[in-house]
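FW: tagging you since you asked about this chain on Friday. Here's the raw sequence from the shared folder, copied in full. Didn't touch anything.
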Amino acid sequence: MERKDFDAVASTWDEEPRRVQLAADIAAAIKESVPLSADWDGMDYGCGTGLLTLNLAPALRSIVGMDSSQGMVDRLNAKCAAANIQNTRAVCCNLEQGVMPAGPFHLVVSAMTLHHIPEAVPLLTSLRGLLHPGGWIALADLETEEGSFHDDQTGVFHHGFSRKELEVFLARAGFNSIAVRSVAAVRKHDQLYPVLLAVAARP
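HL: got it, structure written out here
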């Protein structure tokens, strides 16, 4: 399937208020669900322009954003430079080929990225391998919808996920202490689309 060209939309990505609000809601839910520490190093998988990354950065020692779009990565690094944010950086990695930063991390987060990944379990298994024992993963994505959320279906492999699906994916990838709950909703096309947060730990 053709992949969406995120480079083309990077410069205007943050101009969508729904997107900014959703990142803030997800960050707040992660802070409620995970015992974040100022001694922790984190990674944001599929970080985009860093809307979630920068919400979490003040609570962590460091956080690296990774994305396969160089345009998105450049935007996040420019924001960090402009605001003199020292503990955050972004790197361009080919997510499809499993190219990952070195780690290990205490926390891996991802927001609205999983539905762009054809096979979730191999990815989640790779992410588990980047975590310290006892480290946490926090994934936010759409709850199952009928396919109307995306106006452009390019690169969309899943129309959201059920709570059970996320639980099964994380268990198969070797996580425990799995909890999934609804933490936000996006209003679009006069419809509300719930967003789930799945949190789990590496044994």
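FW: The mean pLDDT is 92.
HL: agreed, and The chain has one domain: 6-201.
FW: great, closing this out.
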